[in-house]
Specification:
A hairpin with a 5-residue loop joins strand 9 and strand 10. This protein has an 8-stranded mixed sheet with strand order 5-4-3-6-1-7-10-9. The chain has a two-stranded antiparallel ribbon with strand order 2-8. The chain contains 5 helices and 10 strands. The longest helix is centred in the first third of the chain and has 10 residues. With about 190 residues, it is α/β, with parallel strands linked by helices. It has a single domain, classed as Dihydrofolate Reductase, subunit A (3-Layer(aba) Sandwich), CATH 3.40.430. The model has no long low-confidence stretch (mean pLDDT about 95).
Length: about 190
């Protein structure tokens, strides 16, 4: 069975973006770029992959990406309606209809049911895990379905912003399965349910 993996960058104090959604304050050092390019190239949008010369890099872990409407909005604003053409793309939105791109499927109804159906798929590409991309509200609503957390903790304290999960108090235990620290100070922590 495929896993739903919340692969997310956060500050030391647990924020995934500034209060207005901006990400520019996260330090994107050479070691982070090298790490993502080699270990998780499919998590980089197409324009970044092209800039890094890895446009044709094989997907190592994920075959599908699911993101919320707010996470998808900057790509649309930049005229990039298919930011992850190397993955099957889903955007969760009640208002975005029709899809701005034939390669992007809009999920507007039973998100949990769709995630469960995607997790149950089998086959070569379909067997790859599902990348949950940003969106505190979406991550909060899917928390019971998240099988793994891969958290990139950047050496920054924001003080305020958008939290990793937009949900009420509902403790759920995960087990630490891996740690890695890059030279620039980013720590990568992996947890499984």
């Amino acid at each position: 069975m495929r896993k739903l993996v919340y692969f997310i960058g956060t500050t030391i104090d647990g924020f995934i973006a500034a209060p207005d959604g901006d990400l520019a304050f996260f330090p994107l050092t050479d070691d982070v770029v090298t790490f993502l390019s080699s270990e998780y190239p499919e998590t980089l949008p197409v324009q970044v992959r092209e800039q890094l010369g890895i446009a044709d890099a094989a997907n190592r872990r994920f075959g599908t990406v699911i993101q919320g409407r707010a996470t998808y909005a900057p790509a649309i604003e930049a005229g990039l309606t298919s930011p992850y053409p190397h993955l099957r793309q889903y955007v969760v939105s009640e208002t975005l209809t029709p899809s701005p791109d034939p390669a992007v499927t809009i999920i507007s109804g039973d998100v949990t049911g769709k995630v469960r159906a995607l997790k149950a798929e089998e086959g070569t590409e379909k067997g790859r895990d599902i990348f949950l991309l940003g969106g505190a509200r979406l991550a909060g609503s899917l928390l019971p379905e998240i099988d793994e957390l891969v958290v990139k903790i950047y050496p920054v304290v924001a003080g305020a912003g958008i939290p990793m999960f937009g949900t009420g108090f509902s403790p759920l235990s995960f087990r630490l399965t891996g740690t890695r620290t890059l030279d620039g100070g980013m720590a990568l922590l992996s947890y499984e349910r």
